């Protein structure tokens, strides 16, 4: 049973912490100020970060140990982590820096966002506050907390190196790109996956998911952002065990609008269709490659993630008007999404 108070806090962003770190907190020396922020974030979040140990194998056969990190998001035991950390693991445990250890069960997995939720048998756990990655800026201080190589409660710090990165994911035959991924130079290693990436106020703004390297790009890590989309995914995993997605069957990318059209619609970009899947809802609706989508269901399309935000469970089976530009004229077609099966 999910406590609706906690679920509401996840969707709305949670209460702001009155004792959260103040990024403007100054000092006579920059290093001291930097150290105070990192120390304060560490003290606040380390108790909320779990060391996940997963047992791989069958009940009768030998078991192999795998692991990663997770972040407590509700006091009654819900823990957010990466899907690839828990995938294929029937059972495991979560341990904390205070020495407590609890069994965990998988509540929901969404490989296409690389997010998962597990639940421990504990109560009164210290829950982290979720932030909003949409407010991050390049160069901003971030702190990563996790269990790299099994070293529990490890803290590294760095900056947001870039925003808007993409991370390819796959579930069965279905592939997808996670948009607006955070790039950071905070040191990440195997075992950090599923752990917290925090801003200077101790709010979790990302779930560490990938490390580039070794020997290729040390100091180049990626985190799935905490934003409006991922909040919906997390809430669905907590309540339904999965996240339903709608599907229309196109691939596309952002494209500048022709000058005349840009003036007419008072915007600069749209989404150009580069591929239409055979027998898909888009194909049945008559969409074509090189069509330039202006809006879907009244929502402006400036980038592919604008469309992805609409492709959720509510859109399945509901006709959506698609306004597009084709052969010098604007027209509207109707597309009815189906449920994406993985």
Report on this structure.
The two termini are 26 Å apart. Helices cover 18% and strands 40% of the residues. The longest helix is centred in the N-terminal third of the chain and has 16 residues. α1 packs antiparallel against α4. The chain folds into two domains: 243 residues, Thrombin, subunit H; 94 residues, PDZ domain (Pdz3 Domain, Roll). It is globular. It contains seven helices and 21 strands. With 342 residues, the protein is of the alpha+beta class. The strands form four sheets. It has a six-stranded antiparallel barrel. A six-stranded antiparallel beta barrel has the order 8-9-10-13-12-11. Strands 15, 16, 17, 18, 19 and 20 form a six-stranded antiparallel β-sheet that branches.
Q: What do the pLDDT scores average to?
A: 86
Number of helices: 7
Per the principal axes of the C-alpha atoms, what is the gross shape?
Answer: globular
The spatial strand order of the largest sheet comes to 1-2-3-6-5-4
CATH architect. name of the largest domain: Beta Barrel
- Give a count of the beta strands, DSSP E runs of length 2 or more: 21
CATH topology of the largest domain: Thrombin, subunit H
> What is the beta-strand fraction?
35-45%
How many domains would you count in the coordinates? 2
Which regions contain 5 or more consecutive residues with pLDDT less than 50?
16-21, 58-64
Largest sheet: 6 strands, antiparallel, barrel
Gyration radius from CA atoms, angstroms: 22 Å
What is the string of SSEs from the N terminus onward? Answer: HHEEEHEEEEEEEEEEHEEHEHEEHEEE
* SS-derived structural category: alpha+beta
CATH top-level class of the largest domain: Mainly Beta
Distance between the termini: 26 Å
Share in helix = 10-25%
